[in-house]
Amino acid sequence: MQRHKFQKELYTNKGSGTTPSIITAATENMQSKFVVQRVLELREEGVPLNDIAVLFRSSFHSFDLEIELNKAGIPYVKFGGFKFMETAHIKDIVSYLKVLENPRDVVAWNRIMVLVDGVGPRTAEKVISDILQHKVNGSSESTRSFWSTYNNYPDKLTDLFDVIKQIASGDIPPADKIGIILRHYTPQFKQKYDDYRKRQKDLEMFQTICERYKSVNSLLSDMALEPPSESVSDITPTGSEDEYLILSTIHSAKGLEWHTVFVMYCLEGRFPSYRSADSPDEMDEERRLMYVACTRAKENLYITYPLNIYDRESGLILTKPSRFLEGLEAHTEQWILDEED
Amino acid sequence: MKKYTLKKSIFQKEPQKSARQFQVDYQNELNPAQYGAVTSVNGPHLIIAGAGTGKTRTIVFRVAYLVELGVRPESILLLTFTRKAAQEMLRRATSILDSRCEKVAGGTFHSFANMILRRYAPLIGFDPAFTILDQSDAEDVVNLLRTQLRLDKRKRRFPKKQLLYTLFSRSVNTQETIKDILTEDYPQYLQELETIQQLHERYNEYKRQYNLMDYDDLLVHLKTLLEKNKKVCDELAGRYKYIMVDEYQDTNRIQADIADLLASKHRNLMVVGDDSQSIYSFRGATIRNILEFPDRYEDCNMITLEENYRSTQPVLNVANEILKRGRE
């Protein structure tokens, strides 16, 4: 019979240690906030940021956390995959929102125009110069009237302008605007990226994040990459500007070790990922990933998962903790998060 | 008559005394499992090094141990995942023993292949001055051929250079057919299968014509060289008498074959790794290499390092439980 592993049992002669915890969060955002708060506390206790790592199965799992870290002013570096806002397809989507907020954003305009089949840099340039000369001042009032009157562009661009017109209405919540954008963008997206299946999850995640926002403006501000430097100084002692929290995919964390390790999204459908469900070999590899993640921790290990996550791709609500948590009750503390009023 | 006593100590080596002949106090520096691994010399050995159990330390001490035993450093070959890892290990071996360890042959499978192929290139139909294409060079070549075949003018969408190169590379590394890869991950291009295969052939012809090799070719051509030229294979086996492979759980099929071929004569092959940390199947690595090592080398000596120097016991209990529940 085929062998799937060699028997081994790790042990240490080090003294006792802290019992690892499994943390259940009601929502994805509470999961992020838990990590942020715990990181700040550990920092207070004297654990340097770069001795703390947050690990996850897939690059997109950290997007919500990245926004919360930016808000809290915790500097971080991310290994494996791209930073959320730096991925080309998220940049595409955000560009639609940007022209909505500021019709003079030439860079964003150029980005969404060349996505249209048959529109090259030259056409884009001409249209953009038209837009710029139309004396639009960018305020919401005149922006709206601009979009309802100005529509004599080349046919190829009609669809794009229809979309902008639709989403220019202030009554629509940001998440719904993203929905409209995605309907328009998806064919272009599939055209532009050979690996669009992998990227699809990012778009879904972005839409989920948008659901928490009431205005496009505050959404775009939160998305800004640079953490505000004033608040960084609150948690970073002088002379150690190079201190960063580590965010990493498990693959990129191999061979490394940290004082404290968080493993996020230990939820069926996320970790293990859906795709591995059909193949026992792939499921074995997912389990090994979990093993690699946990063995990075020297002192503290926090395993977290959110509940009731809607997975857009499958249309399912993910509610089950990861199968890799089975049998861990005896070896861990179970925490449930609560929010102060 | 004079009585002359034959002293026991002259003819029977006491273990303690032989230990003192070494400059490094191996027994004291290592735990029993590590010591067992370090002092395993001839024949095939499989060292399963659990997370945080001092794998690098074990390799470093074994290099020193072999050198102290009198093995010529030039005849030890240490193959690692990155060149930096090999350099670091040999630097550490040098610091615990002496500069003899600097002469050990160390590097990655790719750097080793490059060195050997420069010497024997004509035997596989290449000029020794062949150029190595890095990934972006290789993609550019693919793109050139794509344009020559006028695939860029197609109405129907055809894969771009990055994906084409990924397909070719994965097919070489995992020995999956392009058809299987497309079916599994890019079904939208299945209808282009024949054209993609044709392009792959042209890509290979082109490289041969212009004396080029991409990263995968280095491994493929080395393997072919060792398989087709018994003389070369024996020559290399004679030069590298002790072979060590690090991160063995992350090797692909071709790399395992190369190690086996190099060791085919003397069978002094030590592979080190952790099956539980094999997580790179998407890059072509196969866990079967390490899991089936005892089947390929039935007389292999297997040692498991389990004492962890990184984590506390509560963390290890979690890790152990996760492993325990995996398939047997």
Structural commentary:
Chain A has 341 residues and is an alpha/beta fold. Chain A has two domains: 21-83 and 231-337, P-loop containing nucleotide triphosphate hydrolases (Rossmann fold, 3-Layer(aba) Sandwich), CATH 3.40.50.300; 88-224, PCRA, domain 4 (Orthogonal Bundle). Chain A has twelve helices and nine strands. A seven-stranded parallel β-sheet of chain A has the order 3-4-2-5-6-1-9. A two-stranded antiparallel ribbon of chain A has the order 7-8. The radius of gyration of chain A is 23 Å and the shape is elongated. Chain B is globular and about 105 Å long. Chain B is an alpha/beta fold and 328 residues long. A six-stranded parallel β-sheet of chain B has the order 3-2-6-7-1-8, sandwiched between helices. In chain B, α6 links the parallel β2 (76-80) and β3. In chain B, 52% of the residues lie in helices and 10% in strands. Chain B contains 17 helices and eight strands. In chain B, α7 (109-120) crosses α12 (215-228), α8 (135-148) crosses α9 and α8 packs across α11. Chain B has two domains: 19-117 and 218-323, 3-Layer(aba) Sandwich (Rossmann fold), CATH 3.40.50.300; 132-210.
